[in-house]
Design a protein that fits this description.
By secondary structure, this protein is of the alpha/beta class. It is about 40% helix and about 15% strand.
């Protein structure tokens, strides 16, 4: 039963859908999806076209807006919006350390999670679309990994799309995970350099924290074991528009005096716990590298292996000299599963996914080359999370796709830019810009 309620300026309706776990076996086991329908209060009774929002990630539920925040305000001027919690996320059937043992052991868990990639998400969307719109095509807004899913949508079921809008999410069509990370580590280095140029005092602050953590590992309030490598991964903040400033404020008062000497403060450790813990989104860590799996090559902990090719990221070597400590970004490592109590029981499962060699293709280059769906994509110049060169090459491979390449925003431009980013991209799909 659907439940409707109100927030300022909008009417919300909770929607639930039942879909097959394995779309190749539609009569088999099912899982539940949750989505939130949003419509402007003054248009609640109107017959409006639909816009589906696909959240970034993987592994995050759709953003919980209050009222008409960010891009939603622009969308609600003409659409009824569906904010979908992709399978395994948010209020959809969960997949985490508490629920996955119901599947059996690590092998069964890995087989289960192999069905949580973009191809399954797109087939979920198609079942939901037929129920929600009565079969009419809808517009899709894909942010980050949601953009990856949108390119898969254009490959598998373009007939379901009236238009597609992608922000920070044009993937390489054929790159292995190793190619993705070889392109990523130099971007991480550039982002760290830009941060230190803005806040030169943070060079010494970051070095001091890393030196402290090399001498003694610290346990965070939730049980996460913080070492120097894990501290470096706070560089993930640098992919957002306010991230450099947030990192600066985090570092500026990390230490407090104690009877035993300087120690990392409770306030610092509490904030770091919130930034590094995967308790709220374990799927991100579990399936992150599998979003790049498309052939018989395993991902094999790609981010960890490729990091070894960039010795400048080695904290101990850096601290033996006088250079700035480099920070990392969107990478998942074997040690992540050792340090985080939300992931520790799933380490073997993650290893089996990393070793998997039976990934199916996520994109259809021939179908994309013949695309007829109006598509527009925002490509953020030197995006920390998605390689600009990869995105531009894919843009050229999708017939009719129009790009907006900008350095005005970071990866979170569709949120930080309010209605402007979505407005421009919709205009591009309509040849109005």
């Amino acid at each position: 039963m659907s439940v409707s309620y109100r927030q300022p300026g909008v009417v919300l309706t909770d929607r639930r859908f039942t879909v097959p776990l394995d779309h190749a076996d539609p009569a088999g086991e099912t899982i539940e999806l949750y989505a939130r329908e949003v419509v402007a209060s003054d248009k609640a009774r109107q017959d409006l076209p639909w816009l589906l929002y696909l959240q970034g990630g993987p592994g995050f539920g759709a953003h919980r807006f209050v009222g008409r925040q960010a891009w939603l305000d622009r969308a609600l001027k003409e659409y009824r919006v569906l904010l979908l919690d992709q399978r395994g996320t948010g209020a959809s059937t969960p997949a985490n350390r508490q629920t996955l043992p119901l599947r059996g052991g690590p092998a069964e868990q890995a087989d289960y999670l192999a069905r949580f990639r973009a191809d399954s998400i797109v087939r979920d969307c198609e079942l939901v679309r037929r129920e929600v719109t009565g079969g009419a095509p809808w517009t899709v807004l894909g942010q980050s990994f949601g953009g990856f899913c949108t390119v898969t949508y254009l490959s598998l079921a373009p007939e379901g799309l009236a238009a597609a809008v992608i922000t920070g999410g044009l993937p390489s069509l054929d790159a292995h995970a190793d190619d993705v990370y070889r392109a990523a580590y130099p971007r991480m280095e550039r982002k760290a350099a830009a941060h230190y140029a803005r806040y030169p005092q943070d060079v010494e602050r970051a070095r001091r924290i890393a030196e402290h953590l090399l001498r003694q590992e610290v346990t965070l309030p939730g049980g996460y074991r913080l070492g120097a490598e894990a501290f470096q991964s706070l560089g993930i903040l640098l992919g957002g528009g306010e991230g450099s400033h947030r990192l600066h404020f985090l570092l500026e008062d990390a230490f407090v005096p104690t009877p035993r000497g300087p120690a990392l403060s409770d306030a610092f450790l509490e904030e770091v716990q919130g930034l590094l813990s995967y308790a709220a989104h374990p799927l991100y860590a579990l399936v992150h590298e599998s979003i790049y799996g498309q052939d018989d090559r395993p991902t094999a902990w790609s981010a960890e292996r490729v990091r070894a090719e960039f010795p400048q990221f080695d904290a101990a070597k850096t601290l033996a000299g006088d250079g700035p400590l480099l920070l990392t970004g969107e990478t998942v490592h074997p040690w992540t599963f050792d340090r985080d109590p939300a992931l520790r029981p799933l380490r073997e499962t993650a290893g089996l996914l990393a070793a998997r060699t039976d990934w199916t293709p996520l994109y259809d280059p021939a179908r994309l080359a013949a695309n007829e769906v109006p598509v527009a994509a925002a490509i953020y110049h030197d995006d920390l999370y998605v390689d600009t060169a990869h995105s531009l090459r894919t843009a050229r491979a999708i017939r009719g796709l129009r790009t907006w390449v900008t350095d005005e925003y970071e990866h979170d431009g569709v949120r930080a830019g309010g209605p402007r980013v979505l407005d421009r991209l919709l205009a591009l799909t309509r040849d109005e810009a």
